[in-house]
């Protein structure tokens, strides 16, 4: 219920993770249709880049203004920091306070004067401004670091490398907010070089008990995790896509014209295959390099047909092998019979 600087930093990290989730799923999903030349209905989704900019903008971001308050001379308090937020962020649509121009809670006593509210992608969160300046400073005086570095214990010395006299830096140490912002930027840069897979965990109840399903709690998590928008984009588009070559290689045994070998472009082979199977045209689309299947049941049908065909092919192979084995045995027996008969007639 009481959110301070720590929760603000955590929620900032969640916003950045949600942003990369949007870029790598929803945005990439729609951009792939454009690249492949697939016609479909564009789905609008909320991009939380505007919220990230509110927090991390180098000039007008909340973290930048917090650092400015911590570094400027004169009397600095949490109230002066809130006053600066009210001046700079007053018109921002995702920022609210008792003094902000866009606030709809001017007469709402649930929003005290010492608080501000941010409308995150997962909902609105109210922050108590008390302690923001002190927690952001997070100062460890230089003489204390030097004293700890002189300790005989190797672990303590390793925890305070800034106390090393050879590495004395007269510059003011970075604030907690700027350090966390740099760490988040490094994390985002690392994630963008990878191919991440997202696992969204849903908590069914607050009691940590089995066989209890709280529908309201689950719906709340689904909505705030952004899963509804992801499902909307998926349902409006295509549930499955695959390059033509592996698709033809996997399902070519379902059509006599493509089995066992198809001579020609892979896309032409896939077109012949789907026409032969009688799949409705509205269930798939041909992209520049991939086949797009709209409904999962179409894919399930292909897999069932493939499974049945593999069983038929296995039966055919077994039948041919047994026939070959029996014929080979028969020919050997016939040859032996001829040899025995010829020797018998010689001495008869």
Give the overall shape, derived from the CA principal axes: elongated
If helices are DSSP runs of H or I spanning 4 or more residues, what is the number of helices?
A: 13
Give me the count of strands: 6
Give the fraction of residues assigned to helices. Answer: 40-55%
Radius of gyration in whole Å, from Cα?
Answer: 34 Å
Mean model confidence by pLDDT: 83
Low-confidence stretches: none
Residue fraction in strands: 5-15%
Give the spatial strand order of the biggest sheet.
Answer: 1-2-3
The level 1 CATH classification of the largest domain is: Mainly Alpha
CATH level 3 topology of the largest domain: Methane Monooxygenase Hydroxylase, Chain G, domain 1
Largest sheet: 3 strands, antiparallel
Give an account of the 3D structure.
The chain is elongated, with a radius of gyration of 34 Å. With 348 residues, it is mostly helical. It has helices at residues 5-36, 49-56, 62-71, 78-88, 132-137, 142-149, 154-159, 176-192, 215-224, 227-236, 244-251, 266-277, 296-347; strands spanning 95-97, 115-120, 123-128, 240-243, 284-286, 290-293. The protein starts with a helix and ends with a helix. The chain folds into two domains: 5-138 and 174-193, Methane Monooxygenase Hydroxylase, Chain G, domain 1, CATH 1.20.58.530; 242-347, Alpha-Beta Plaits, CATH 3.30.70. It has 13 helices and six strands.
In short:
By secondary structure, the protein is mainly alpha-helical. It has 2 domains: 154 residues, Up-down Bundle (Methane Monooxygenase Hydroxylase, Chain G, domain 1), CATH 1.20.58; 106 residues, Alpha-Beta Plaits. The protein is built from 13 helices and 6 strands.
